[in-house]
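Issue 218. Parser rejects a valid record. Input:
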Amino acid sequence: MVRSSKTTNLVGTLVSIVIPTYNRGNILPVAIDSVLKQTHSNWELILIDDGSTDNSREVVEPYLTDERITYYFKDNSGVSAARNKGIDLANGQYIIFLDSDDYFDKELLENVNQELTNQPDLVCWEVIKIIDSKTKYWKARELGGMYRNIRATFLAGSVCYKKDTLINHGGFDPKISFGENYELGQRISRKECLKIQLINKPLLYNIVKTEDRQSNSIKNRLISYIYIYKKHREKYDQNPKASAEMNYLLGFVLEKANRKNAAFGRYKKSWFANPWNLKPLLKILYLKFVS
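Output the parser choked on:
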């Protein structure tokens, strides 16, 4: 671990920003620079290098002259384990996780700090998503029964967590490689009297290049969906609508994997759980009579 020994007197609540990275040396400076450009200066940046084999360390080296920046190298074990290491190292009472291919609006921390006086568990904000050069807006929304119908967003970089809330709910599950943010959100949402502050401004730029997203592969999605469904099976069984949605997603990825019989079974479970939703019924008819 590389950390400066200097100290600085700063105002406001210290917020720890954790950037996990793996072989992203070519784009990492954009994320780091977006933190350095913040109009609010009481932050620390923890870079967790998850076993990169490219020039990431050399790229980071010039930034370490800033006393607020720490670099930690670890063996490769996935983004969830990297984020958990960031939680361990964080000095701030609040933590934001930023993906290494995304970046913040310069006024993010200024806006967030204004919401921390009431000691919320979560602060959420809007996002500008740029998907293969097409732009759309992402806002906090009601998340349904598995989240006790809270209005929030758990997309990485769109939420500031109280550190104690993260720790008390177990952090990120290292066994999940897709959907890990929202699986954590399911557990956090069960907290009694959960306090959420919403900022109605887009303060994250989320860059998605679909051809580069290994975590979005059919294999990763299928393994993660099955694991999440089994892990929270009791809660899904208590919530037919959520069960229908998860079984539909499983059917969809199984169909994409050309496992049509298994997909057919999941679509049936989805429809039986929520007969008012016609999407799985149409899939059932398609697989039975057309495909």
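Fixed in the parser; the record now loads. The chain has two domains: 2-213, 217-289.
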